[in-house]
Amino acid sequence: MTAPLFSPSFRASLDQLFTWRRDVRHFRTEPVPEALLLRLLETACLAPSVGLSEPWRFVRVDSPVRRTAIRENFSRCNAEALTGHSGDNAQRYATLKLAGLDDAPHQIAVFCDTNPAQGRGLGRGTMPETTVWSAVMAIHTFWLAATAEGVGLGWVSILDPAEASRTLCMPPDWQFLAYLCVGYPAEQADTPELERRGWEQRNPARRQWINR
Ligand SMILES: Cc1cc2nc3c(=O)[nH]c(=O)nc-3n(C[C@H](O)[C@H](O)[C@H](O)COP(=O)(O)O)c2cc1C
Prior knowledge:
The chain is an alpha+beta fold. It has one domain (26-187): NADH Oxidase (3-Layer(aba) Sandwich). The protein has helices at 8-20, 34-44, 64-83, 87-95, 130-148, 161-167, 193-196, and strands at residues 56-60, 106-113, 152-156, 174-183. It has a four-stranded antiparallel β-sheet, with helices on both faces. The N and C termini lie far apart (41 Å). The structure holds flavin mononucleotide (FMN). Residues 22-23, 25, 98-99, 155-158, 192, 194 line the site of flavin mononucleotide (FMN).
């Protein structure tokens, strides 16, 4: 099969996709069609992985009981995080919305199988953490594919991972990586919410070059 040529207009659109991908915390409540969610998962699974181990595990969380437990986990961890800030920072932190757990129609926990049979160990002997990196690449691929379809994703990490694993009854070898809120965004923006809220700013890319 001949590899496709990516036209200048495709590249311009791709640039826009990168620019408009956002971490979303404000969702509309209508569900995303199941067929589309499956397509996003299929695209995520095109991500590279060490030794072709495909160690990502996407766990749909639909049970109201489990969702409530995750919500409580988040509330506790977020309250604790607030105590780590003082003065202006604490005030500002308290006003941030750091998860869309109440309104996102879909919730997906992502785990990494840290000891997958698939891939037969290739490439991870010296750096076992490469399984985690592979799974994170799948999350990012899911994120971009979702953005292209007008679907928003918010990554929640303000959680106690051991408790989240227990809530979801996961095997001990599966490392909790992310809790994703997924749904149609209530608003669109080409800048991060944390930047718009004055919490932090992005740096010019050229500052990221380090020469040796
Ligand atoms: C590993 C990881 C964990 C994150 N955890 C949270 C989180 O717990 N709550 C939250 O509101 N955003 C979280 N974010 C989103 C970041 O705040 C966001 O990506 C960053 O501010 C840049 O904004 P953008 O993604 O819209 O460009 C997380 C992002 C990553 C990559």
